[in-house]
Amino acid sequence: MSRSLDFLTEALRRLPGIGPKSAQRMAFHLLQHDREGAAMLSRALYQAVDTVHHCAMCNTFSDTEVCELCADESRERALLCVVETPADQMMIEQTLTYKGLYFVLMGRLSPLDGIGPRDLHLDKLVGRASDGVVEEVVLATNFTNEGEATAHYISEMLKARGLKVSRLARGVPVGGELEYVDAGTIARAMLDRRSA
Amino acid sequence: MSRSLDFLTEALRRLPGIGPKSAQRMAFHLLQHDREGAAMLSRALYQAVDTVHHCAMCNTFSDTEVCELCADESRERALLCVVETPADQMMIEQTLTYKGLYFVLMGRLSPLDGIGPRDLHLDKLVGRASDGVVEEVVLATNFTNEGEATAHYISEMLKARGLKVSRLARGVPVGGELEYVDAGTIARAMLDRRSA
Q: Which InterPro entries match (chains A, B) (predicted)?
């Protein structure tokens, strides 16, 4: 067989969730049916590794020192929303309900995976939130065990520095039928009920 | 967000079976946790596109004009085994039961996908099998509808040129329990039964 093909198959296995069979199938497909796509992917990888950094303000991926969103003068600078990933940030942006700035953790606290406060660079978040302009930090980490633990840890840390900290509301999802919503969510919605 | 990241996400979607969510997850993973892997994959793709050709004899992927297996003087040159893909060829090699040469179709006849005899370059196979040295062609395409149709088509074509053509035996798989083997396979095994 071909050495270059073996090397390509091996390299494709570095992609998350891709095993030996999938890697081989991808390599065959690219070489047989889409060499243009392979060349394009090669360039895209090279360019991304070369130019993508972390925004100095919000820590998300950016080609520039400060990302477009952080540089946008029309955003409310007193509000800082903490999310786990750029994908989460995009979801919130799509709701059009938030006009403040963000801080992207690029992960979550996960002791089982050996990710502690230092690995998440939480000191960067503390520095960002303590700039004297930020008044409220909205924690929008996931509502998983790890996301909740991360929110709790950050909350304690920022409250100790006198910052106002809030968390996304929990409750029954829009369109949710009680019969099919889990008991934990309903219990939470009952405790957090608000006047109608 | 980052333009380079968008370009990378777009390029990753050229991989077979990768949708927008997976592409985004892969891009984040590479940039956050495995930039070395991303750079390696970039090089591997570039190198593969640049150096991988089709073997002049067997049509499989090869870095050289004629692949190692075809150049191997110890193989029986009177036997030619036709397979659909390099992966199929590797499976047969692993059995250590075949010492002849191969011809790799790099696909199968599939009218629904618009793949006819011309798209498969069957003329190349005819030329290869008619070199005066090949005595028997063993058809080892898959036992799917498309693989069977491909085998039938090639068989007719080569027999018309006076070549001996055979097909891998069908029957109950090794370790197969009749109770769990499909009726079609058992029927075939009954018809093709051999003296014990």
A: DNA_Rcmb_RecR (IPR000093), Rcmb_RecR (IPR023627), Rcmb_RecR_Znf (IPR015967), TOPRIM_dom (IPR006171), TOPRIM_RecR (IPR034137)
CB A15 within 8 A of CB A29: no
Q: Is residue B50 within 8 Å of residue A43, measured between CB atoms?
A: no
Query: Strand ranges (DSSP E) for chain B?
Result: 53-54, 61-62, 76-83, 100-104, 136-139, 164-167
Chain segment B123-169, per-residue pLDDT in tens: 999 999 999 999 999 999 999 999 999 999 999 999 999 999 999 88
Q: What angle do CA B128, B129, B131 make, to 5 degrees?
A: 70
Cβ B102 vs Cβ B79: under 8 Å: no
Nearest CA in chain B to A67: B1
Chain A's closest residue to B12, CA to CA, is A41
- Closest CA in chain A for residue B1: A62
Span A4-33, pLDDT tens digits? 999 999 999 999 999 999 999 999 999 999
Two tokens, residue B136: 């028997």
Identity of the residue in B27, B40, B62 whose CB atom sits nearest the CB atom of A14: B40
Closest CA to B185 of B167, B170, B196, B174: B170
User: What value of ipTM does the predicted structure carry?
Assistant: 0.81
Rounded to whole angstroms, the Cα distance separating B175 from B98 reads 22
Q: Rounded to a whole number, what is the distance in Å from the CA of A168 to chain B's nearest CA?
A: 23
Closest residue by Cα to residue B103 from B135, B161, B59: B59
* A152 CB-near residues (< 8 Å, 6+ apart): none
The pTM of the full predicted model, rounded to 2 decimals, is 0.79
Q: Give the CA dihedral A14, A117, A83, A170, nearest 10 degrees.
A: 120
C-alpha angle with apex B12: B7 to B18, nearest 5 degrees? 140
Phi-psi region of A183 (alpha: psi -120 to 50; beta: other; left: phi over 0): alpha
- Measuring CA to CA, which residue among B20, B23, B9 is closest to residue A48? B9
Instruction: Tell me the pairing of strands A100-104 and B53-54.
Output: unpaired
In whole angstroms, give the CA distance from residue A12 to residue B41: 6
As a whole number of angstroms, the distance between CA A149 and CA A167 comes to: 12
